[in-house]
Amino acid sequence: MHIDYARWRSTHPPIMGGQPTDTDPDVESLTLLERLQAKRQKVLDALSEKVTAREAERTEFEQRSTTDEDRTAFNDAETRFAADFDQLEAESKSLQRRVREQEAVEEQRTVAARADASPRIGSITEPLTYRRDNAWGPDSISYFRDLAYTEPRIAGHLGGSQNEALERLHRHAKETESWLPKRAAERAKHAEEALEEAERSASKFWTGTTRGLTHSPFEQLGAVSPFERRVNPNRTDGQGGEFVQYMVAA
Q1: Which of 2, 90, 144, 200: CA 20 to 30 A from 19?
Q2: What is the largest CA-CA distance in the chain?
Q3: What is the model's pLDDT at position 105?
């Protein structure tokens, strides 16, 4: 965001012979960024005016014959000009930094406002087909009854609609596509964690009760679990597991 300097300066002429004022009645109605930009512009105008005036004095001094008194006055004026120039330049740099800070703030506000103004598409959750609240009563819906209605003879005998039952079953299948795999993965994860905890407990038990062994038999086997794990049988060697016998000292 930038202030219209041409419009602003048309009502605020450059400052003559002094430092710029901090506030103006018109500037008070502007944003902080616009006020800082306007204030810095006034500093730059004052700086430009001082440089222009000093250059004119230097030219005039160089073009005339001078006395020692004139040269002393000229040097004193140069010292005062250098001090004023440094002060205005430092103020301009300070204001420029604040302007950059406020520009960053304004940019973030603009982005946030644009995001708030953009239409948001929210997810609308439709009620599930088979629920507890519709499982009872004259108009109840049952998953297992709909499965039975897929057989035309059963649907005709019980007065049900095969097409409506198939529609509800298809809708239920689409509903479970999103959450059923996630639920199955969570249950498998919890079961695996419970199994690992049981294996650790069994390992501690064997280590504490087995005489003549410095380690648990299961620790000696490495990844072998004390619990049975079933696999689909086939003819691959070792697929059915391996039997290892331990000799335990009496």
Answers
A1: 2
A2: 129
A3: 87
168 closest CA partner among 184, 145, 152: 145
> 3-class secondary structure for the chain?
CCCCHHHHHHHCCCCCCCCCCCCCCCHHHCCHHHHHHHHHHHHHHHHHHHHHHHHHHHHHHHCCCCCHHHHHHHHHHHHHHHHHHHHHHHHHHHHHHHHHHHHHHHHHHHHHHHHHHCCCCCCCCCCCCCCCCCCCCCCCCCHHHHHHHCCHHHHHHHCCCHHHHHHHHHHHHHHHHHHHHHHHHHHHHHHHHHHHHHHHHHHHHHHHHCCCCCCCHHHHCCCCCCCCCCCCCCCCCCCCCCCCCCCCCC
Do the Cβ atoms of 32 and 102 come closer than 8 Å? yes
pLDDT of the residue at 209:
53
pLDDT tens digits, one per residue of 190-247 = 888 888 888 777 766 666 555 555 555 555 544 455 556 666 666 776 665 555 454 5
Calculate the CA 245 to chain-centre distance. Answer: 58
The Cα–Cα gap between 75 and 70 comes to: 9
Please give the Cα distance from 16 to 31 (Å, whole number). 26
Output the pTM of the full model: 0.38
- Stretches in the chain below the pLDDT threshold 50: 1-3, 5, 8, 12-20, 22-23, 25, 221-223, 244, 246, 248, 250
In this predicted structure, what is the pLDDT of residue 45?
94
In order of 80, 97, 108, 160, the CA distances from 28 in angstroms are 32, 20, 23, 77
